[in-house]
Design goal:
One of its GO terms (molecular function) is oxidoreductase activity. InterPro entries: Ald_Oxase/Xan_DH_a/b (IPR000674), Ald_Oxase/Xan_DH_a/b_sf (IPR036856), Ald_Oxase/xanthine_DH-like (IPR016208), AldOxase/xan_DH_MoCoBD1 (IPR008274), AldOxase/xan_DH_MoCoBD2 (IPR046867), AldOxase/xan_DH_Mopterin-bd_sf (IPR037165). This is Xanthine dehydrogenase family protein molybdopterin-binding subunit. It is a single chain. Helix content is 29%, strand content 22%. It contains 20 helices and 28 strands. A 7-stranded mixed sheet has the order 3-5-1-12-9-10-11, sandwiched between helices. A 5-stranded mixed sheet has the order 7-15-14-13-8, with helices on both faces. The longest helix is centred in the last third of the chain and has 28 residues. The chain is globular, with a radius of gyration of 28 Å. The N and C termini lie far apart (74 Å).
C-alpha cells in the first residue's frame, strides 16, 4: 500500500501534468519584457540598410557621396568595404547530395552584394549615423547603378530552358537534384496497383510575420578582440558558433550572443543574417555599438519566407484500398540564396513526413531545389512536416472519392496498428508508440461526425455550402541534440536552470520549472530560468523542430539525479550517517528531503544547499555545492500525431469561406503543462488556417513583391476562427526520459489537410475535387463559376 502521507506526484500543484499559468505572462502583460529594440547602449549608433529595388541585375556602381553628406551620418559601407577583413559567408550547412552522389551546389552569400543583385531587398550597402532617422535619410541618398536583368520567381519556370540564370556555377538554377527511394520497386507497385490517384498541389509561399521585427546591436571590445551581438534568436549557442566559425571566422570564445525576450520566430530567426556581420564590422571600425531595427516593409523583403513547393503527388492502392506506394515529384523554391537549412523542407522532411501514420510500404521523393529571384526560403513552423501530411491526406481523400470508398474506413484500413510498434517506416524513421485509430475515433466522436448532415441541411437553408474535413497527421520532430541542463542553488534562495533551448514565445520557464519541481522537490516559486546568454552555455541545440521539452526536460531530469547524488553525500555528513543510509524523498508538500533510512531525521534540500554554502572547514569529501552542470546526450526524434476535424461554410455567391467548427485530438505523449500545450496547438491551427485560406506571397513578372504589406497580405484574426475543441489521447514516448513527443508544430500539420479537405467537400456538389491554397474568396468563387459554366 502506498504511504498516505506522500503526495501523488502526478497531481502536485506545480508538477508534471498540471495547467500552471506561464510565469512569463505577468512580466509581458505589464510591459516589463526586454526585447532587443528595448536596449540602448551608451554611445550607440544606428544603422539602416540599403536594399536593391530590382530583382535581378549587375551592379555597375554604388555612389555613397551624397549619403556621407547627410547630417548625422558617420559612415557608409558597401560590399567592397567588407572585403579584405577575412570574413566568411552565409551558406547552407546541410551535407545533402544529388541523386548521382555529388554534393549540392552551395552558394557563398556575402553580407552585401558585390557583383549582382538577385532579389528585391538584396542588401548592397548600409549607413551608420547618430540617429535612426539620419541613418534612414543617408540610406535614401545612396545611388545604385544596376543593369537590370530578366527575373524569374517560380521554381519550375526557373528550371526551364532559357530561364534567367542567377549563378554561373549553377546551370539550370538547380542547386540540388534530390532523390529518395527505390524507383524500380515504386514503379512496380504503381504498375500492379488497382487504382492510382494523382494530384498537382501548390504549397503556397508565406511571409513569417513574427510580431517582433528583427533587431540587433553589435558591440566590439578592442582590448579583448571580442564581439557581442544582442539579437532575437532561437538559440544563442548555435548562433554563436555560426557567427564565429562561418561569418566572422574567429574562435568561438571571441563571440558572445545575448538574447532577451523574442516576439516570435517560427524558424525565421534561427540563423545568421547579413545585417549581423554589418553591425559587428561597423562597431569594430567605429569603436561604438551599432543598432539596427527593421521595419515591417523590410521584414517582408528580407526575412526568410516559408513553404513554396510545386508538387505532383501520386498514391497507388490495391483493390481493397491499401496504400502500396506514395510518390512525390517536386519543385522547391529556394529563393535567391541558400539559407542555412533551406533544402531540408522539400527533401528529408518530405521523406520523413509523407508516411504520416499509415503503413505505406514504399516512398519515393524526387525534389529539385531551384534558386529564383525571390526572398530566400527557410524553415517555417513545421518546415516540411505539415506539407508531407497535407499531401498524403489530400491523396487519401481523393482516392476514397475516386474508388467509391468511405474515407474514414480507408484511413482505418491503412493505419499502422499498435501491435506493429516499434514500426520501421520506409523513410528510416522508427515509430515507438501510438494508437492512431483510437485517436481518429475519439476525434470523430468529439466532433459529432454523425450530426453533420443536420448541420449541412441547416447551412443549405441559409444558402451556404457546408463541408467537413479530416486532417490525420504524424510528424517527425527534430532529434534532440546535446543539451545543457545546469542547476544552480543561488545565495538568495532561488534555484536557476541554465539550458540551451530558447523561448521565443512558447513559455519555457513554467514547464521546465514543473519538471525540476517534480524531479527535485525544490519550491516551484523559487525556480528561475536562464537561456539567452551564450557565455553561460557549454552545449545547446536551440529551439526548433518541436524538441525543446524533450531536450531541456531530459537534461533537467538527468541533472536533478546528479544533484540528488551530491545531496546524499552532503546530507550524510550533516546528519552524521553513512551515504548508503541516506534516502531522497518528498514530504507531504512535495518538497525534497534527505532522510536517514528508518528514522525521522532529515534535512530539506534547500536548507542543505544553504548549509553547504555556509559550512566552515568542510571535510574533503563534502561537495562544495549542490550545483550541477550536465549535458544530455542525443536522443531519437519523436512522433507526435493526431486527428483534426474541421467544418467550413462557403457563400457560393462570394466565395467567402468560414471555419465554423474545429476539433482536434492529439497524442503528444506525456504533457507537462496542458494549458501551454493547448495554446501551442491553437497557434499552429490558426497559422494553418491562415495559409489555407488567405496567406499568399505574390510577385510580379519583374520580381517585385506585390504582397509587401498588410494592405496586400492577409493574416487570420480572432474573428476568422471558431473556438477550438482540444483533447488528448496520449501514448507516452518510449525514447526520452519524460515520455514527451513535442507539440509546437503539430497544429499546422493537422489544420492544413483538415481545412482544405473540408473546402473540397463543400465544393464537391459542383464536381470540384481539388483547389489549391490559399482558398481565397476569389479562387473559390472562380472555381464555382467555372464549374457552373462547364
Amino acid at each position: 500500500m502506498p504511504d498516505s502521507t506522500m503526495p501523488d506526484l502526478s497531481r502536485l500543484k506545480f508538477g508534471v501534468g498540471q495547467p500552471v499559468p506561464r510565469n512569463e505572462d505577468p512580466i509581458l502583460l505589464q510591459g516589463r519584457g526586454r526585447y532587443t529594440d528595448d536596449i540602448s547602449l551608451p554611445g550607440q549608433l544606428h544603422a539602416a540598410m540599403v536594399r536593391s529595388p530590382y530583382a535581378h541585375g549587375v551592379i555597375r556602381g554604388i555612389d555613397t557621396a551624397a549619403a556621407r553628406e547627410v547630417p548625422g551620418v558617420v559612415a557608409v559601407f558597401t560590399g567592397a568595404d567588407l572585403e579584405g577583413h577575412g570574413y566568411g559567408s552565409l551558406r547552407c550547412v546541410l551535407p545533402l547530395k544529388n541523386a548521382d552522389g555529388t554534393p549540392l551546389r552551395n552558394i557563398e552569400r556575402p553580407a552585401l552584394a558585390l557583383d549582382k543583385v538577385r532579389f528585391v531587398g538584396d542588401p548592397v550597402a548600409f549607413v551608420v549615423a547618430e540617429s535612426r532617422d539620419a541613418a534612414k535619410d543617408g540610406a535614401e541618398a545612396v545611388y545604385i547603378d544596376i543593369d537590370v536583368l530578366p527575373a524569374v520567381t517560380l521554381a519550375s519556370e526557373a528550371a526551364a530552358p532559357g530561364a534567367p540564370q542567377l549563378y554561373d556555377h549553377i546551370p539550370g538554377n538547380d542547386v540540388l537534384d534530390f532523390h529518395h527511394g527505390d524507383a524500380a520497386k515504386v514503379a512496380e507497385a504503381f504498375g500492379r496497383a488497382t487504382h492510382v490517384t494523382t494530384l498537382s498541389i501548390r504549397n503556397n509561399r508565406v511571409v513569417v510575420c513574427a510580431m517582433e521585427p528583427r533587431s540587433a546591436i553589435g558591440e566590439y571590445d578592442a582590448e579583448t578582440g571580442r564581439y557581442t551581438l544582442h539579437v532575437g534568436s532561437q538559440g544563442v549557442f548555435g548562433l554563436k558558433n555560426q557567427m564565429a566559425n562561418d561569418v566572422l571566422r574567429v574562435p568561438p570564445e571571441k563571440v558572445r550572443i545575448l538574447t532577451g525576450n523574442v516576439g516570435g520566430s517560427f524558424g525565421m530567426k534561427a540563423s545568421a543574417y547579413p545585417e549581423y556581420l554589418c553591425l559587428l564590422h561597423a562597431a569594430r571600425l567605429l569603436g561604438r555599438p551599432v543598432k539596427w531595427t527593421d521595419e515591417r516593409t523590410g521584414s517582408f523583403l528580407s526575412d526568410s519566407h516559408g513553404r513554396d513547393h510545386e508538387v505532383e503527388a501520386e498514391l497507388a492502392l490495391d483493390a481493397d484500398g491499401r496504400a502500396l506506394a506514395v510518390r512525390l515529384t517536386s519543385w522547391a523554391n529556394m529563393g535567391a540564396y541558400l539559407a542555412t537549412v533551406a533544402p531540408l523542407m522539400g527533401t528529408g522532411n518530405f521523406v520523413r513526413n509523407i508516411q504520416s501514420n499509415y503503413a505505406t510500404p514504399l516512398i519515393e521523393v524526387t525534389t529539385r531545389s531551384i534558386v529564383t529571384n525571390t526572398t530566400p526560403v527557410s524553415a517555417y513552423r513545421g518546415a516540411g512536416r505539415p506539407e508531407g501530411n497535407y499531401f498524403f491526406e489530400r491523396l487519401l481523400e481523393q482516392a476514397a472519392k475516386e474508388m467509391g470508398k468511405d474515407p474514414i474506413a480507408l484511413r482505418r484500413l491503412n493505419h499502422i496498428r499498435p501491435e506493429a510498434f516499434p514500426f520501421k517506416a520506409p523513410s528510416g524513421s522508427v515509430y515507438d508508440s501510438g494508437d492512431f485509430t483510437a485517436v481518429l475515433e475519439k476525434a470523430l466522436e468529439a466532433a459529432d461526425w454523425d450530426g453533420f448532415p443536420a448541420r449541412k441541411a441547416e447551412s443549405r437553408a441559409r444558402g451556404r455550402l457546408r463541408g467537413r474535413g479530416i486532417g490525420n497527421f504524424l510528424e517527425c520532430t527534430a532529434p534532440p541534440m546535446k543539451e545543457q541542463g545546469e542547476i544552480r542553488f543561488e545565495p538568495d534562495g532561488t534555484v536557476t536552470i541554465v539550458t540551451g533551448t530558447l523561448d521565443y514565445g512558447q513559455g519555457h520557464w513554467t514547464p521546465f520549472a514543473q519538471v525540476l519541481h517534480q524531479s527535485l522537490g525544490v519550491p516551484f516559486e523559487s525556480i528561475r530560468l536562464v537561456q539567452g546568454d551564450s557565455d553561460r552555455l557549454i552545449a545547446g541545440g536551440g529551439t526548433g523542430g518541436s524538441k525543446s521539452l524533450m531536450a531541456s526536460g531530459a537534461a533537467i531530469v538527468e541533472a536533478a539525479q546528479l544533484v540528488i547524488e551530491k545531496g546524499r553525500v552532503a546530507a550524510a555528513h550533516m546528519l552524521e550517517a553513512a551515504v548508503a543510509d541516506i534516502e531522497f524523498e518528498r514530504d507531504a508538500n512535495g518538497l525534497g528531503r534527505f532522510t536517514i533510512a528508518g528514522t525521522d531525521r532529515s534535512i530539506g534540500i534547500m536548507e542543505l544547499a544553504e548549509r553547504i554554502r555556509t559550512a566552515n572547514n568542510p571535510p574533503p569529501e563534502m561537495p562544495e555545492s549542490l550545483d550541477v552542470r550536465h549535458v544530455f546526450g542525443e536522443a531519437p526524434m519523436a512522433y507526435p500525431n493526431g486527428c483534426h476535424v474541421c467544418e467550413v461554410e462557403i457563400d457560393p455567391d462570394t466565395g467567402i469561406t468560414e471555419v465554423v467548427r474545429y476539433t482536434s485530438v492529439n497524442d503528444f505523449g506525456v504533457i507537462v503543462n496542458p494549458l501551454l500545450v493547448a495554446g501551442q496547438a491553437h497557434g499552429g491551427i490558426v497559422q494553418g488556417i491562415g495559409q489555407a485560406l488567405m496567406e499568399h506571397v505574390a510577385y510580379s513578372e519583374e520580381g517585385q513583391l506585390l504582397s509587401g504589406s498588410y494592405q496586400d497580405y492577409a493574416l487570420p484574426r480572432a474573428s476568422d476562427v471558431p473556438d477550438f475543441g482540444f483533447l488528448s489521447q496520449p501514448s507516452p514516448c518510449r525514447t526520452n526520459p519524460l515520455g514527451a513527443k513535442g507539440c509546437g508544430e503539430a497544429g499546422c500539420a493537422g489544420s492544413l489537410p483538415a481545412v482544405m479537405n473540408a473546402i473540397v467537400d463543400a465544393l464537391s456538389e459542383f464536381g470540384i475535387d481539388h483547389i489549391d491554397m490559399p482558398a481565397t474568396p476569389e479562387r473559390v468563387w472562380r472555381a464555382i463559376e467555372a464549374a457552373r459554366a462547364a
